[in-house]
Amino acid sequence: MNSPFRRTSMLLVATALLLPLAAAAQEEKAPAVNLDSELAKECYSAGMIIGKSISEPGIELDVEAFVAGFSAALKGEESAMDDEAMREAFRALQNKLRAAAQEKAQAMAVSSKAEGDAFLAENAQKEGVKTTDSGLQYRVIKDGDGPMPQSTDRVSVYYKGTFINGEEFDSSLEEPVTFGVTQVIRGWTEALMMMKVGSKWELAIPSDLAYGPQGNPSIPPNSVLLFEVELLGIAE
Q: Are 155 and 178 in contact, with CB atoms under 8 Å apart?
């Protein structure tokens, strides 16, 4: 339910610096390109993926200077700047990008928190929804008659996770998963220890019982997470 994520490639670091290109470029339709060869397809897909992943912070960029440097490097030409000057300029741009990314993340976190709080307030009024002291909300779809897991148990479940906008971000509906009761987010741990084997519940988990203001690579900061969970059994 949580994926490690590391940027280990200098290509990805360099890619991040292309972020402003989309905002700074002229609003012209991209020229047609011949994609008959595998090489062309590979390079085009790389360009599209990079472009989509870096079109976030709207930092001003001198496009002509960027293209000149990029082209010179590809052609193996001598740089117009000495190494120390390039390193200093590169660090300055990195700092701008980092600041812009942090500002965007903070704005997203504030917006997500407000939307999540509003959703939980409305959801709490729905028929069958119960709210625990921690703020966890749940609705019993089917009540099982088996034992309730303890904190030291391992359980087997089916589940589907969505954001409050309905977008699915995770699922094990095709094959159940098994894990320790305390090896998941706090909202899950609390719910599992209240469920009987055979139960199926809907959960609305506040962000502070999930991934909080930091989020993770696939979960935006301060996200309320919705789950449909079926407790299949307690593992031996």
A: yes
In this structure, of 12-16, 53-57, 65-69, 227-231, the range with the lowest mean pLDDT score is 12-16
Strand partners, 155: 179, 234
Alpha-carbon distance 203 to 190, whole Å?
11
CB 229 within 8 A of CB 157: yes
Other CB atoms within 10 Å distance of the CB of residue 25: 13
Structural tokens at position 58: 């709207």
Q: How many C-beta atoms surround the C-beta of residue 116 within 10 A? A: 22
Residue type, 18: L
Query: Residue 78 gets which letter from DSSP?
Result: P
* Tens-digit pLDDT profile for residues 48-67: 776 555 455 566 767 688 77
Assess whether pLDDT exceeds 80 at residue 10.
no
**H helices within the chain, ranges in order?**
10-16, 21-24, 38-53, 63-75, 83-123, 186-192
The DSSP letter of residue 169 is E
Q: Counting beta carbons within 10 angstroms of the beta carbon of residue 44, is it exposed (0 to 12), middle (13 to 18) or buried (19 or more)? A: middle
Q: What is the pLDDT of residues 173-200, one digit of tens each?
A: 889 999 999 999 999 999 999 999 999 9
- Provide the phi-psi class of 118: left if phi over 0, else alpha when psi is between -120 and 50, else beta: alpha
